[in-house]
Amino acid sequence: MRIPAHSVCTAIRDDIVAGVHGRGSRLTEELLARRYGVSRVPVREALRTLEAEGFVVTRRHAGACVAEPTEQEAADLLETRTLLEPLGASRAAGRRTEAHLKVLRGLVRLGQERARQGTGEELRSLGGWFHDTLARAADSPSLTALLTQLRHKIAWMYVVEVPVGPVEYWAEHGAITDAVARGDGARARALMTLHIERSAAAHRLRFTSGDGRSERVRNAQHPVNTAGPRR
C-alpha cells in the first residue's frame, strides 16, 4: 500500500519540530525512507512541501537540509501571528458553528479548572487545541492552513512557557469565546490582539546557544505505516 506523501510530511515535520532532525542536518531520501518505513517517492514529495513551508532548504552539494532560521525570522513569526490570529477570531465570530462553540466552551471550562490546579503541561496542550479550534471556526481553508503552519514553526523555534497568571490567561480565552458566540467580530479581533501580545512574553527561543543549534529532545523512530496515532 502506498503511503500518502502528506502522512510522511507530517512525520518528518513533527520530528523537525521536536529536534530529532537538528538544524542544518542533511535529509537524505534513502535514510528518511528507511526511518519512516516508506518508499523514496513520498519522501521526495514531502521534502518539496516542507521546503515550501520553510522547514527545509536545498543546498548545493548537500541536497535537502533542515533550515536554520535566524532570530529575526523567528521574531517575524510572532509578529505575523499578531496579525493573522485576530483576523481568524474575527472571521470565526461570523462563521462558527454550534459544534465549534461547544468545543471552545468545553476547552475554556477545562482550561480554567486546570489553571486553578496549576497543571502546566496540560494547559499548553489545551491552549493549542483552543487556538486550533478557533482557526477552524473561521471557515477559511487558506487562513486555517497559514495559522496551522505558523503554530508548527513557532513550536519549532520557541519554547512556550506556562504564562504568568494562568487563570487570567484562560479568562481571556473565555472572553474571546463569548465574543465569537455573540457574533461580535470587532471585539473578538481586539481581544485576540491583546491576548497574543500578552502571551508573546512566554516565548523563549530554542536556538540561542553558541552554535545556533537546538538540542535534540527525542530520538525514537516513528514508522509512518504502523497502526495507531503518532504521539
TrEMBL record:
Residues 205-231 are annotated as: Disordered. InterPro entries: GntR_C, TF_FadR/GntR_C, Tscrpt_reg_HTH_GntR, WH-like_DNA-bd_sf, WH_DNA-bd_sf. Transmembrane segments: none annotated. PROSITE patterns: HTH_GNTR (PS50949). This is GntR family transcriptional regulator. The keyword Manganese does not apply. It comes from the Bacteria. CDD domains: WHTH_GntR. Keywords: DNA-binding, Transcription, Transcription regulation. Residues 2-69 form the HTH gntR-type domain.
